[in-house]
Amino acid sequence: MPRPQIFRPRPAENRLVLRIVTAAALVLIVAGVARAEPTYGIAMYGAPALPQDFVSLPYANPDAPKGGSLTMGDLGGFDSLNPYVPINKGRPPYWLGPLTVETLMGRSYAEPFTLYGLLADSMETPPDRSWVEFHINPKARFSDGKPVTPADVLWSFETLGTKGDPRYSVAWKKVAKAEQTGPQSVRFTFSAPDRELPLILALCPVFEKAPFDGKDFPDTAQQIPVGSGPYVVDKVDRGRSISFRRNPDWWGKDLPFNRGQWNFDTITDEYFADGNVLFEAFKAGLIDVYRESNPAKWATEYGFPAVASGQVVKAEIPSQRPSGMTGFVMNTRNPLFADWRVRQAMIEAFNFDFINQTLNGSRLPRIASYFSNSELGMQPGPAAGQVLADLAPYKDSLLPGAIDGYALPVSDGTEANRANLRKAVHLLAEAGWQAGADGVLRNAAGEPFRFDILLPQGSGDMLSAAQIYIQALTRLGIEAQVTVVDSAQYTLRTNAYDFAMTSYTKSLSLSPGNEQTLYWGGAAGKQPGSRNLMGADQPAIDGLIAQMLSSTSHADFVSAVRALDRVLMAGRYVIPVWYPKVSYLAHIKALHYPSILPIYGDWDGFLPNTWWREE
């Protein structure tokens, strides 16, 4: 038999074959079907810090004992048992979702934005991240014992994106095709490449489809979703408390991601209408842990017997996350606050230094920008370098301060705050507001400057700050008053943007992404129930969010966020107050947490995730 011939191209043929192979590879890459390998984790930039065979998350104790109970306390109440229906359908218990429902991948809070396998044991996405495919762990089970299937994943994603809380719609609108690609695999193809979208989808909740068959999802506010998480709902006292028990048959208890986490047998969350009552409940031993927001109280009001005897321990947890934004937000849909000069006047009139001294003993720094306390925060002075280049396309629509620099006013610390009030008077006059002989500030039509500050029950120091602020506004001829409503009424009014000014808190991460369009994107501000309470609507905001999302290097990403930070601060939408560089936690001595802390500090992923009870 003749020997088989082996084709060995000559040098010229070698070059031809190389061109053919390269061209074929390019076709495959363009088609989005090549250059993707299954992986155990994914980072927004770079590679995951943990190896594939990691034992546990760095801030979890894999040897933590299991057992015991934890009782926490929250302010407000709840009137819904489904965390995923639209927000106008009711307010759910905070912990219902995180304790009972899982996602395809889990977030490590030891890194800015990195995910590792959870319901999905692997995933793949090409370099341009134009699609993502998840392989569901065949061991994954819901709490009723049924397997987690591709159909459950696809239904959960589509339902949340089209009928659920609006925060899920932003990502879903970018999905051009969702399909099952194998017995345990699902693929999502995007309408355009998006670096963050694979991570966002990996964090989308997955719950069982069958219990919702034949039902209109937005009308299921009283139906508890069946999830695959470590806990199931045990008891519900509607609006007052909810308790969870650890599922002894939880499928994921031995996953590396979960090792050392979810250690309590039972977790109870008690709700209180008033912050003082919540604190007294902690002192009386009715709850096990208490977060103190006021450093002055932390220094002076923790001498009660349980602390003195060592039965209660005080802990200070540092954080490297951005300050976020807390303060009083002005609704620019209201004609009173449509003019940036009026908003700046409101900021000038807020005597932060005096209020901070009165309420906090000057122990808390002021929030300087939305991303302060991190590398993402805007730098002082005029914009320069890549930040200036990022702002340049929008220079004609930017408000003063965005390019040349913006800083919050500083007072002399006295109650009078005369210099800043004079600036406020000048700005108000430029905007058409003048005080008459009766001292009342009016516009050209003779209408008085009058508004309410809407606050929810249990506002604590924000209520005290508002009351001091109102006294300063009176000197300008402005009539302001505080209106306090219960949590349900507050939700209804803020969803409908039925307020002039209200308290505002927006936590931000070290990896801001698609959620930014919900917080201050122009389209979101026109939809009832969005997080864009201020009604921000600037081309620069939407453009810089898009640029941030398309950045392929960490340096470009940081520049885009710093530019966005400048635009938001120059928008003068919020009167910033203070933020803690550490979290103040008091807890019974039987509670423990690992010595290694997440970079996000006392945030998601810390309490109750990694704590345990040991008498």
How would you describe the overall organization of this protein?
The protein is α+β, with helices and mostly antiparallel strands. It has a domain at 325-576: Dipeptide-binding Protein, Domain 3 (Dipeptide-binding Protein, domain 3, Roll). The protein is 27% helix and 20% strand. It has 17 helices and 25 strands. It has a 5-stranded mixed β-sheet with strand order 20-19-21-16-22. A 4-stranded mixed β-sheet has the order 2-13-12-11. It has a 4-stranded antiparallel β-sheet with strand order 6-7-9-8. A hairpin with a 5-residue loop joins strand 17 (434-435) and strand 18. The protein is globular and about 75 Å long. It starts with 10 loop residues before the first helix and ends with a strand.
Helix and strand topology:
Layout lengths: L10 H21 L9 E3 L25 E7 L20 H5 L1 E2 L1 E4 L5 E4 L2 E5 L6 E6 L13 H14 L5 H4 L2 E8 L2 E6 L6 H6 L2 E2 L24 E7 L3 E6 L19 E7 L2 H9 L5 E4 L2 H6 L4 H4 L3 E7 L6 E6 L9 H10 L2 H9 L24 H7 L26 H13 L3 E2 L5 E2 L7 E7 L4 H15 L3 E7 L1 H9 L5 E6 L9 H5 L18 H12 L3 H17 L3 E3 L5 E7 L2 E2 L19 E2 L2
Parallel strand pairs: 2-13, 19-20, 19-21
Antiparallel strand pairs: 1-5, 3-10, 4-5, 6-7, 7-9, 8-9, 11-12, 12-13, 14-23, 15-23, 16-21, 16-22, 17-18, 24-25
Helix pairs in contact: 9-12, 11-17, 16-17
